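Standup notes
- HV: blocked on the assembly model, inputs below
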Amino acid sequence: MRIASLSFRYGRRAPWVLRDARLVLDPGDVVEVTGPNGAGKSTLLRLAAGLLRPVRGSVEDRPRVVGYAPERFPADQPFTVAAYLRHMTAVRRTNTDAIGHWSERLGMDHLLGQRLPDLSKGSAHKVGLAQALLADPGLLVLDEPFAGLDAATRAELPEIIGEVRARGGIVLLSDHQGDLRTFPGLRRCEVRDHVVREPEPTEEEAAEEALTTLEVAVPASRAADLAARLRAEGCAVRVTQQAPGQATGRVREEAG
Amino acid sequence: MTAVLALARFRVAGYVAGHRALQPLMGLLVLLAILYATAVPAGQEIAATADSAAMLVPVLAWAARGLLDTEPDEQRGIALSALGPRELVSGLLAAFSSLLVLAAVAEGMLLLRLTTSPTVAVLLTGVWLHLLSATAGLALGALTSRPILPSPAVSTIALIFGYLSMLILSMAGARWLTVPVMGWMRDAHHGVLLSEAALISVQSLLWPAIGLAAYAWLRRTRP
């Protein structure tokens, strides 16, 4: 997917929010959009998701299935959580089994019978995430996905993002909470002064990444499986065999 | 069920469950109570049908606008991310289906208040004129919905003036410049409505078609 020379403003006389933004997103990319408040992060996310139409430039090769979770889920709707998600599975042409799956993953089984307007902010936010994930999106756009979530779901969400990446999906998100800072292979792009740029990693970050090496000893039969899982999470993996007679494989993992 | 129909169903369900559908329904019932305080005398069936269809336009526009505006803006964004531009088709489909229900209520009430049994010609004229009325209401409602006119005050005024302009222009005889609602009534009362049915259909569908095309074009930059 490619954001090509994209410029956007909300009206003819309104100031430009983004000017000549360029970004290439490859399958498996997880990109965090950073920048000060009001810089245009949410606008960039909406443009990427197809909610807004660029004034100039274009978004090319957007994956067919897009999941979008807004910063504030619109809870003022006359449905229970289950009824709302059932409608969304019909709209997404996907199986209703997905409701049970994502409700369990996001720790919201107990909310299914509740009415949307009665939900707390965090619970409503989970519904927003669930609807975005229902159809296995090729592009998942999350606007502040960690805001208001409980600890268990905060821990689960990076796993889910890793799974979307592992099957070749693109994840684009803004995250003021910083929960994804340590996510392996995370790309960052910064929106500042109407411009989108990818900052070079700081020396500290680069040094940290170069130095983080993890050695894991596993039975040889499991080495290939573990190496594949780690690669899916963006790690560089080198498998070395130990001396004959020792029935273990050695997986050497390097960050980045 | 296609995704467009599923989204239309979701929107109609939200419109009904949120009780917003009651507002135009109450308006319609008041209008019908006034229109049919006395029974329709024999020979006036076609004229009564035309009166009903013409007076129904603002109520139907109100209903269409209400349905399109029921959904929070962020939910419309979610729908857009799921369906892309087909989201717009789904909204219009949902709105038109709700207008058909209101038009059917009006038509049913008219038939109940006839003093003689309705002929096939009366029935078909009723369906035809109320479809024209629903199309005009759909276009006016869509053009005054929140994505196009975010201010509720401006939107309400635009809806009222939109209907008034239909009345005034068609009263002045400018049939091609608007939906000729006054022309429907005049022709029906003069007994020439059915002989000019094809021309009236074209005149009545022209501006709604332009209005809906304008709505689709404006929505490109107004999600």
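- HV (later): unblocked. Chain B touches chain A through 28 residues (CB under 8 Å). Chain B has one domain: 3-219.
- Next: hand off to the docking folks.
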